Each structure stands twice: as C-alpha cells, then as structure tokens.
C-alpha cells in the first residue's frame, strides 16, 4: 500500500506526538503507512501525489483568518506550503482530509469566508449530518446526530460554491464539507479522545481558548458526553482511498 501523509503544525512535542498516535489508532494505519511531516519544523518540499494514497492535515494553534501581519514567519510558510499542495490536490480531486486547522486551510484556498462569528469553546457538541452527508461514504455508517469534540477560535461563515455541506451544528453551521468527491475537511476533531483533548487543554491553556479560571470547567466539558463515532470517519477515509 502507498502510505498516507499527515501534515502537522503543533510545535509542542507532547500534543504533537499524541496527535500522531491518535491518527494511527483511528485510521488503523501503522507508522510506515502514515508518514508524519511537521510543517512547523521545516518546509514541506515537493509532494509526489502519485506516491501516496491520501493526505491528512491535523489541528494546531494557527488561525487561517488572522491578519497576515500577525502571523509568524513559520505560520506563513506552513500555510503557503499547504496552499501550494492544494493547488494540485483540488484540481486532481485527490484524497485529502483536513481536521480543524485543516478546514481553515482548505476553506481559505477555496475562498470561504472565515472569521470568529462561530467560534466554539472546547467541549463536546452534537453534530448533524445533512442530506448530502447521509449520502457520503465517509458518514454513511454514522447516525444522523453524533457527538464530537470541538474547540476553535474561528470557523467558516460562508462556504464557496465549490463546497458541499456534509455536517452542521446548532452553534457552528459548517462542521464538515467536501470539495469535488474526495477532498474533505471537518471543524470538529475526528482524531481525538478525552485524553487527547485533556492534553491539548493543558498545553494551550494560555492560548486564548478559555479564561485561566475556566480550566476545570473546560476539562469537565470534554467529559460530559461520550464521543464514539467520529473516529470511524478516519477509518472510512483510509478504507476508501488506500491503494
């Protein structure tokens, strides 16, 4: 099998390594079949799409909607690398799955409106499939409503014409969309579990996701309801596109 790529942007080793381990668990891949590239550490370079089965983009502390002047040199380079890759991925309709920060990169590339209107605190929310989502192979085995982990400062306010809305929620209209037939992104975290969310809460406690005095409330928020279905989305992606 040709490997999948995971493009990561977390500069902190503990959550970065835990994210990789979670992707391995929920995709069912092993390390030789899921090659991680840490974009915050070095330029991406050229990617031969014919040599891989598909591409994942994980979450991270970057915000696509931040003014360019406020973005670090590392963020600008990482975003340029992903945008250049999407210049090839989207026209080819090549298998791609962006989670959380990945929805910002794909959304920005396609001309979506991204701002802080629909930001969500770190928690568990109920996500609903749209009619298109119910017909999509990645969501076919999920119920019409399912619990998912969220936590983001920005979100998509308006999708571009190229996108098909697959999932939504009461507080954030765009939770998952598809471009073409094979290019996906989610606002929620399909790769995470309670332990992974706990690590991220503690790591990013001073990054503006919640007030310092809300730490215990935020830790409790990710435990208030079991999240049992979203990891299957990643497994379905691998089963569909492994080649």
Description:
The protein is an alpha/beta fold. It has a single domain (4-241), classed as Rossmann fold (3-Layer(aba) Sandwich). Helix content is 32%, strand content 24%. It contains seven helices and eleven strands. The strands form two sheets. It has a nine-stranded mixed beta sheet with strand order 2-1-3-4-11-10-9-6-7, sandwiched between helices. Strands 5-8 form a two-stranded antiparallel ribbon. Strand 10 and strand 11 form a beta hairpin. The chain is globular. The model has no long low-confidence stretch (mean pLDDT 96).
Report a brief summary of the structure:
The protein has 243 residues and is α/β, with parallel strands linked by helices. Helices cover 32% and strands 24% of the residues.
Key terms:
243 residues, alpha/beta, Rossmann fold, nine-stranded mixed β-sheet, 32% helix, glutamine amidotransferase, ChyE-like, GATASE, Glutamine amidotransferase
Give the name of the CATH superfamily. Class I glutamine amidotransferase (GATase) domain
Radius of gyration: 16 Å
CATH topology: Rossmann fold
How much of the polypeptide forms β-strand, as a percent range? 15-25%
SSE topology sketch:
Elements: E1 4-8, H1 13-27, E2 34-38, E3 54-57, H2 73-92, E4 96-99, H3 101-110, E5 113-115, E6 120-129, H4 131-135, E7 145-152, E8 155-158, E9 163-169, E10 176-179, E11 183-186, H5 194-203, H6 215-221, H7 231-241
Parallel strand pairs: 1-2, 1-3, 3-4, 4-11
Antiparallel strand pairs: 5-8, 6-7, 6-9, 9-10, 10-11
């Amino acid at each position: 099998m040709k490997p999948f790529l995971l493009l990561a942007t977390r500069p902190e080793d503990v959550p970065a390594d835990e994210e990789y381990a979670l992707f391995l668990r929920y995709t069912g891949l092993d390390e030789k079949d899921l090659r991680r590239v840490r974009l915050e550490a070095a330029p991406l370079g050229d990617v031969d799409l014919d040599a891989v089965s598909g591409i994942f983009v994980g979450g991270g502390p970057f915000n696509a909607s931040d003014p360019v002047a406020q973005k670090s040199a590392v963020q600008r380079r990482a975003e340029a690398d992903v945008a250049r890759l999407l210049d090839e991925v989207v026209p080819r309709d090549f298998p791609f799955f962006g989670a959380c920060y990945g929805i910002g990169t794909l959304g920005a590339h396609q001309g979506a409106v991204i701002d802080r209107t629909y930001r969500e605190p770190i928690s568990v929310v109920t996500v609903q499939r749209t009619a298109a989502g119910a017909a999509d192979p990645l969501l076919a085995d999920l119920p019409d409503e399912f619990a998912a982990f969220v936590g983001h400062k920005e979100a998509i306010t308006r999708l571009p014409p190229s996108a098909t809305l697959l999932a939504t929620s009461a507080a954030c209209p765009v939770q998952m969309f598809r471009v073409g037939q094979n290019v996906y992104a989610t606002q929620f975290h399909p790769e995470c579990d309670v332990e992974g969310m706990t690590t991220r809460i503690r790591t990013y406690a001073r990054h503006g996701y919640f007030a310092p005095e809300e730490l215990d409330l935020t830790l409790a928020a990710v435990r208030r309801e079991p999240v049992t279905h979203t990891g299957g989305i990643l497994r379905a992606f691998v089963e569909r596109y492994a080649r």
